[in-house]
Amino acid sequence: MVTQHGIKYAVNLITTHFGDLVAKVCECLLRKGPLTLQAIVRFTQLTSSQVKNSLLVLIQHNCVQAFILEQPGEDVNGAKINTQYIALFNNIIHRWRFPKFLTIVSQKLDKQCVELLEALLLHGRLTLKQMSDRAKSGQNEGDDVILDAVREAFLKLLNAHFIERCPASEPVLTKPTDEEASARRRGPKSAKILEEKETLEQRVIEAAAPSEALRFLLVSQTEPAAEGGKDDSNSSSMIPGEKRKHDALESDAECGGTDEHLVLWRANFEEYIRCLRHKACIENVRARLDDGAVIVLGAMLEATRSAEKKVKTENSVPLSLNSIYEEVIKSEEGRNITFDRVRASLVQLSCPPFVKAVNESYSIDFKKIIELAQNEEVESIVLKRYGRDAYRMFRLLSNTSRLLETDKIADTTFVEKKDTPRILYKLWKDDYLQMEKLQLTGVRQSQFLLWKVNKNTLWENVLDEMFHAALNLSQRVAYEMEQEKELLNLPEDKRVNRLRKVRLLLESSQMKLDDAIMLFHDF
Prior knowledge:
4-stranded mixed beta sheet, 3-stranded antiparallel beta sheet, 11% strand, 13 strands
């Protein structure tokens, strides 16, 4: 879901990090969609060299993906090959979340891992050799000690799936055939244009992604292995429980994967967003239930994390009661919980249905948890903007999810009937409600107004407002940094205190706002 203010916010981030020239190319791709180099030059009116350099910067920092769109040729002998470039909106806005990613690693791993991840976030993508050289340039210890420390930290990040191999530079996509295109046109009409763009972006990402056998695999050969034997110097990191496949290793060797100078690595944004999603689920449950239920939910999240194939998973894999208890007692706080307490906590979690129980197996209902959090976020906005009467009416319509007549809303929420139409009209005017008119004909004609909450449309509007607010905050931060020059004439203590207060306030607001954006956009 990419909104207009979302595009402006993404362009502002790129401008802050890479300057106006790169931002102009990025904005062109965000607004126009996938384009060839020649088309970007034409739309931006920049030189070919400027566009190429800007694209290289964006690709280096994982904000743009190149791909080849293979189209059927006019003659029978060949096909047209066009290299196109597509902006990755999610990766662009993830740049603001780098401090959150570093915090996650600092809580789970050690300082060396944090420093290694910081280098990857700063440079976009690096080889293991480049990471080692960077570490050696900043320390005075022996080379062997530094290399061992870097490799150890690298493997920890790889085993935790916090880093991954970079995608293919130019994956090949085949243009849909006439039959596929006509089938897509016969699909649902709602948000058709948006879905087509997202489908193309997803196709590009999937085509470029390395296979699961290679994505988290490191193969390093320092000396040739004996013929028919095994090289003990090989280091490997694979998905837990996944067997190394011979054909994957052959493919890796063919593309130079065993050479630490060639294989590029980057931060795995998907894993960090998954961690933040799990944290949001835990905090949402913490606000409703006791600590025991929170501990049990956290244990279930940890046990099923490796089985999640995508971030927006609606339900976790089912777990037995014994498996849940086994995971609970792995943590220090969980060792104080008895088996019966775990069972009681699962009953708590089933109402509201945060956890589904089927045949003594339990699975987390991510969709329900996120929906409740989204509802509460929008309800809090309505309460602050329009008052408690509007909040009660909006909450009623949101929970019923059907059309209600004006008088029915007034009677149910105990709001004065003379005030109800005015409040409902205000919510409708600001796109928080959907209104329909019902005309009754007969001896006496009458008209009724019916109201409901269209969550799909409303969520998109709310997200656009959030991106707008995030853009304003970013611009305010830039303004404060410009004003810092004027504060140089003040006494140092006053200047430092004022700057610290302003910075902390703005950063805190940005962090909270970004949490809300992730709730509607990423989770």
